Amino acid sequence: MAKTVDAATAGFAIWRKTPAHDRYNVLRSAATLLRSRADSIAQALTIEQGKPVAEARIECLFSADIIDWCAEEAKRCYGRVIPARNIAQTQIVLREPVGPVAAFTPWNFPILQAARKIAAALAAGCSIVIKEPEETPVSCSELVRTFHDAGLPAGVLNLLFGVPKDISGFLIPHPAIRKVSFTGSTAVGKELAALAGRHMKRVTMELGGHAPVLVFKDANVEVAAAALAASKFRNAGQQCNSPTRFFVQDEVYQKFVDSFVAKARAIRVGDGLNSDSQMGALANERRVHAMEALVSDAVGKGAKVAFGGHRIGNRGFYYSPTVVADVSSEARLMNDEPFGPIAPMQRFTHIDDAIREANRLSFGLTAYAFTSSMKTAATLASDIEVGALWINQPGPPWPEVPFGGVKDSGYGSEGGSESLEPYTVPKLVTQLNI
Question: Crossing angle, helix 164-171 and helix 186-198, to 10 degrees?
């Protein structure tokens, strides 16, 4: 690992002096290469992680869009001139790259999450050491290869695999590392943030979520059920921004549950390499056992399984799309992020009740709502405590919009014009003209 940090230090010395337009060219080339290799990388990703190959290909193409966005932002990393109090004085603010970065990414979206951190760091002029998940080594390695094949100088992008605790324990305190970025669980994120704080390192934390969904009586129930089911069961629910706590107003509760069940029932679960599979396997055996325990706990507290709730077959890690109705707030499903294909449903009567329940947990990453009332939408925009609220349209965090959480879901943003800011530091240069 020491050699890796040495390489990143040497790479930073070169890359920070590389003109922004040249950094742009390298990133654009990497994005083009990633698109041309999307089919082969998607195959590897599906074999390693389990998601349908069509989803894996979309992840590759979406990641290429992220790289393109950051490439353009590299040319717009502006400083500013501050009017001085003395006419003979000039005051300018430069934005300089912070230095070598240590980044840590998860297995659920190994290409996309890595692309966010790599592209932003490189666009800002930083070098980066990225610790990728051991579960998906081939697809991650191929992503890194695209940057090197695009002409990135040696040492600017460095890839590590190994024991996570050993790697973070070495990289974060290392004096050469000046910035830490982590995507993963809240528990691990808090440990890494504390370690970074002891060494005065900048940190971006994109942590766990338990996204509330509020469906109001004035919503188009069929549209809401179709959109939310597609979002819920994407990647078998293994995503931090997956809708996971469904609060449905009394008047449309049963209609929504029935419609959602119909959508879940229609999903074809199978080998991700089969073109007709719409949902693949869970990532590992542990996730299957976690799903079984969550459903059992909910049923034990009075819930009813409306659909699914069981493992599929005795080979692989397949679990049925699952809908659990009338779930108590005391159930683990309503308190612990499931990270799997389970949709728990709960009734509400008044908007204040729904908002209170939505904000009850310490998580605050994303939330979703369906309503035709502008007044309701405005109230939710003001009162729901999250980093991103999607109204009438669960969708992906596009490259051009910021993505990050509040409370225990972390701090800092990736994406949008905010994406490069954590990788730069402002430097004031003031000069008296004599």
Answer: 30
